Amino acid sequence: MRVQVPSPAPQEVAAPARPVAELFVGDLINPGPRLRSSMEGFFLDQRSEHTRRAYSRDLKRFLQYLLVRAETRGRDETLDRGVVVGFKEALLADGLQPSSIDRRLAALKSLFAWLVEDGHLARSPADAVRFLNAKRLSRTQGFTDEEVRRILALPDLHTRAGAMHYAVLMTLFYCGLRRSELCALRSSNLTLERGKRVLRLMGKGGRERIVVMPEPVWNGLRYLFVITRRDLRVDQFLFTAARKRSVLGTVAARPLDPSSIYDIVVRYARKAGIQSRVSPHSCRATAISNARDRQVPDRAIQEFAGWSTPNMIVQYDKRRTAVDQSASLAIDYGDAARRLPAWGAPSGGRESDPDEEVAP
User: Fold this and answer.
1) Number of other residues whose CB lies within 10 A of the CB of residue 322
2) How does strand 196-202 pair with strand 190-193?
3) Measured between alpha carbons, how far is residue 267 from residues 151, 220, 264, 301 in Å?
4) Are residues 101 and 206 in the same domain?
5) Domain span including residue 186
6) What is the pLDDT of residue 20?
7) Phi first, then psi: what are they for 217, rounded to 5°?
8) Is residue 131 part of a domain?
9) Nearest 10 degrees: CA dihedral of 166, 167, 173, 179?
């Protein structure tokens, strides 16, 4: 009897090991179509235009460093942790503040994490690079209540520019907005909440918050629209730059950019005799400090400022948008709000009822 010997099972041929994804310095200096598309997607994915601009500047600075490094080490150097550490050392040698260096490292970490997800890198070369984590106090100073009063007394309310500067400063000092939030304000952000005028904002991280607009701020804004002959019922930017006529003959109103807001704050601070380092962030810090000095609850200040922590309060507080306890209602700089000129169109035009400017 013949015994059938089973044939040996076919041996499985091991698949070739997948090469570890890596990039070289030259790949970032001159990216190919796929890598370029991935990097463009990274920037487009940022929800804030301010973040896009900041990340773009940070990446440009990193590419400048890579170009210099490639002159001695070549473009075929692997993009690894040593390259990122070298970039950090170069920034330190340039005298940058630790907080600025950490921000640039954070931008690189975000970009490399994106490239890992897209398959360009096996792991981020910035993962093990340490932040400096500088615990330094900001050199930007806040304002005293007396300084706020001096600043708000300066804009010429009989001119369009002065009316806008006054409305901008009032909104900064009483509503504590960030520069980017102020520039993005539109009349559609104005609404009513439980009988109070409020600003409905989209802040950092795509988080929406409500800030009550105190009556003096609302009056300053209404006056701005009267003197500039604009209608608050039309959706438009609240604070606009000088209009420029396009090649087609149309006139487009552009929102103020963050640098213009900075110039307004610094200009009036200097006119008020304030020589310390100030910025629009000084107005925000002043508003928050003023509210805290007046015993506003921490929860209300957190909502007012648009901070994400403490997380549990935000998660469980179902009344966090209550306007009756808004921090902006408690802010008080003394008799800072000015008596505005009479309502009505400046050049004999028809007077309008300012309370009808914004529909509930």
Assistant:
1) 15
2) antiparallel
3) 10, 19, 5, 28
4) no
5) 145-349
6) 52
7) -70, -45
8) no
9) -110
Same domain, 153 and 110: no
Backbone angles phi, psi at 192, to 5 degrees: -110, 135
Q: Do 46 and 157 fall into the same domain?
A: no
Total-model pTM? 0.62
Assess if residue 261 is contained within a domain: yes
Residue 269 is encoded by which pair of tokens? 């601070």
Length of the chain: 360
Same domain, 190 and 112: no
Statement: residue 156 has pLDDT above 60? yes
User: Does residue 8 have a cis peptide bond before it, meaning omega lies within 30 degrees of 0?
Assistant: no
What token pair was written down for 180?
């980017």
Q: Within a domain: residue 281?
A: yes
**Residue 237 is assigned to a structural domain of this protein:** yes
Q: Is the pLDDT of residue 110 over 60?
A: yes
DSSP H helical ranges for 246-331: 258-271, 280-293, 298-305, 311-316, 327-330
59 or 21, higher pLDDT = 59
Q: Are residues 189 and 57 in the same domain?
A: no
